[in-house]
Amino acid sequence: MKKLPAVPYIVWMIAGTFIPLLMIVYYGFTDRTGAFTTANILAVFQPVHMKALGLSLGLSVVSTVICLALSIPLALVLKHSTMGREGLIVFIFLLPMWMNFLLRTMAWQVILEKGGIMYHLAHMLHLPFPPIINTTGAIVLGMVYDFLPFMVLPIYNVLEKIDPNIIEAAYDLGAGESTVLRKIILPMCVPGIVSGITMVFVPSLTTFVISNILGGGKIYLIGNIIEQEFTTSANWNLGSGISLVMMVFILLSMAALMKLDKNGEGGMM
Amino acid sequence: MRKAIRGIYLIIILLFLYLPIVTLIVLSFNESKSMFAWRGFSLRWYKEMFNDTTMLSAVWNTFSIAMVSALLATVIGVLACVGILQFGKKGQAFLLGINNIPLLNADIVTGISLMLAFIAFGFYLNWGTVLLAHITFSIPYVILSVMPKLKQLGVSNYEAALDLGASPLTAFWKVVIPDIRPGIVSGFLLAFTMSVDDFVVTHFTRGAGINTISTLIYSQVKVGIRPTLFALSTIIFVVVMAVLVIANRGSSRQSSRNDFFLETPQS
Predict the structure, then answer these.
(1) Phi and psi (nearest 5°) for A38?
(2) Average model confidence (pLDDT) across chain B
(3) Statement: residue A234 has pLDDT above 90
(4) Which of the four pLDDT bands, split at 50, 70 and 90, describes residue A77?
(5) Are residues A224 and A80 in contact, defined by beta-carbon separation less than 8 angstroms?
(6) How far is CA B131 from CA A230, B196, B206, in A?
(7) Is the distance from CB of A15 to CB of B83 less than 8 angstroms?
């Protein structure tokens, strides 16, 4: 009787999460007539799909690494920053997210396009203009731009919680600055880093919007393939099959990350 | 020296983050329709905005769906927290564990799975299916915000109220709810934000008839976006910024605000 309030939640979870996920499994393993087949799963070995999957994995790894490389120093800088209270800094980093995500991505098109802001800037400085738009480089830039806050904030969050006494103790015991960074601060950041990696890697791997806008519609990531099967091509079975393969990669990466974050305290949330 | 390097690094990152936003705001005041040529300052797009019925209905859909889905998700989420705490240790761990599935699921998977289920069960894709989809991905955020507060509160206040003669419903309404209000508010705001910002799930569950701001923008990306959308986004951005600044100044209790900000990115 006391458990009654949880009923709507449980019903909603079953109807809104479990049944829909089972639908993907059902569609993924059947053909249009409803007969069992593994063709949709094996379709991932077709050259077009293999290429898209490989490219997605490659680009999302690259953008995750760039985000990580930018975020660790950034979180350290923010921790030392005198820019008022921490609330202000977090505010500054989250504010861009209130501008529509599609428009922010599209703005990079305006900036990078021939005749755009970068073009004029390069011209003014007599530098060669980098033709980055509609390349994989532009897609990586878009991923880094869109998902950087998801990496910075969890790392900053754990960094803030480190007891200053521990760092002081390390100095007192004769550790140099780089030793403190390597042996004390970075290991304590692992939970934040792990959740940051998940928050950047999964959306990068599955995006179809960024590649569509900044790749000029000619570069196909796995997300684009799935989206097309569900919209223009209307082959839901194939789309589901490829989604299942993609989900396997997500699960594998999460399992690997869980191992990294052994004590699991900082966790996702 | 070292301070200078830190400062420069911070400035470069901030430029990177704000350059696209400044670009969009500048374009919203451009007389020309072109995204690459500046033809002088104009409020033309701000005026046209109010005559653009497609866009106004997209604005209405976006905010009506966000409001209703956030409200319903908050109600379901708060009730869920209360109910889940009545389960044993294993039951609690399981029920909170499945709460993470929608959170960790890629948006595209959530979108297509809901679309397949809606069609399989004979739903007609429209405003209602988008609403149901948004409630689905919002509930976990509410639970994440409310659960820690409820656990912190414990049962003693509630039991004291019962001992003093309150009915369970009165005790819940008058004692428990006021104590967990900060968690409820931040859960609601998170759900609202996620709903307004969503594109992918809406894209798959909306059907042909309706648009939200995001889907309207996406449909125009290929053919060239009308600057009225820049004007609209500028207004939304400025309003949100103003609200946040005022709220930040107004609240002396800095900590509860930070909770909200810090929880947002870790969705």
Answers:
(1) -105, 10
(2) 88
(3) no
(4) confident
(5) no
(6) 20, 12, 9
(7) no
Q: Is there a contact between A39 and A31 (Cβ–Cβ < 8 Å)?
A: yes
Residues B197-224: what's their mean pLDDT?
Answer: 91
- Looking at residue A192, its amino acid is G
Task: Give the integer Cα–Cα distance in Å for A175 and A200.
Answer: 33
The ipTM, to two decimals, is: 0.88
- The pLDDT of residue B260 is 45
Instruction: Determine what percent of chain B is predicted with pLDDT higher than 70.
Output: 93
Placement of tokens 């004769």 in the chain: A174
CA distance B70 to B76: 10
- Judged against a pLDDT cut of 50, whether residue B229 lies above it is answered with yes
- Domains of chain B listed by start with CATH number: 51-266 (1.10.3720.10)
Nearest chain B Cα distance for residue A70, angstroms: 9
Highest averaged pLDDT of the listed ranges A78-92, B71-85, B250-264? B71-85
**B54: Cβ contacts below 8 Å, ≥ 6 apart:** B211, B216
Torsion angle in degrees (nearest 10) through CA of A54, A60, A66, A67: -170
With H, G, I as helix, E, B as strand and everything else as coil, classify residue B250: helix
Interface of A with B in 179-198 (CB under 8 A): 195, 198
Residue ranges and CATH numbers for the domains of chain A are 1-37 (no CATH), 44-260 (1.10.3720.10)
> What is d(CA A111, CA A113) in angstroms, rounded to the nearest whole number?
6
**Among the listed residues A102, A103, A132, A95, the one whose alpha carbon sits nearest the alpha carbon of residue A117:** A132
Q: Can you read off the two tokens belonging to residue B82?
A: 């209360």
Q: Is the pLDDT of residue A85 over 80?
A: no
CB contact under 8 A, A106 and B225: yes
The span from the CA of A88 to the CA of A81, in Å, is: 11
Q: Please, which pLDDT band fits residue B266 given cuts at 50, 70 and 90?
A: very low
The distance of B108 to chain A (nearest Cα, Å) reads 7
Per-residue pLDDT for A86 more than 80? no
Six-digit token pair at A92?
A: 């500054």
Task: Find the residue in A nearest to B91 (Cα).
Answer: A3
In sequence order, which ranges of chain A are alpha helices (DSSP H)?
Answer: 7-13, 19-28, 39-42, 47-80, 86-94, 101-112, 117-124, 136-161, 164-172, 177-179, 186-206, 209-214, 222-230, 236-260
The answer to whether B266 contacts A157, with C-beta atoms less than 8 Å apart, is yes
Q: Give the per-residue pLDDT at A268.
A: 42
Q: What integer pLDDT is reported at residue A132 of this predicted model?
A: 83
**In chain B, which among 69-128 make CB contacts under 8 A with chain A?**
76-77, 79-80, 82-84, 86-87, 95, 98-110, 112-117, 120
Residue A70 confidence (pLDDT): 96
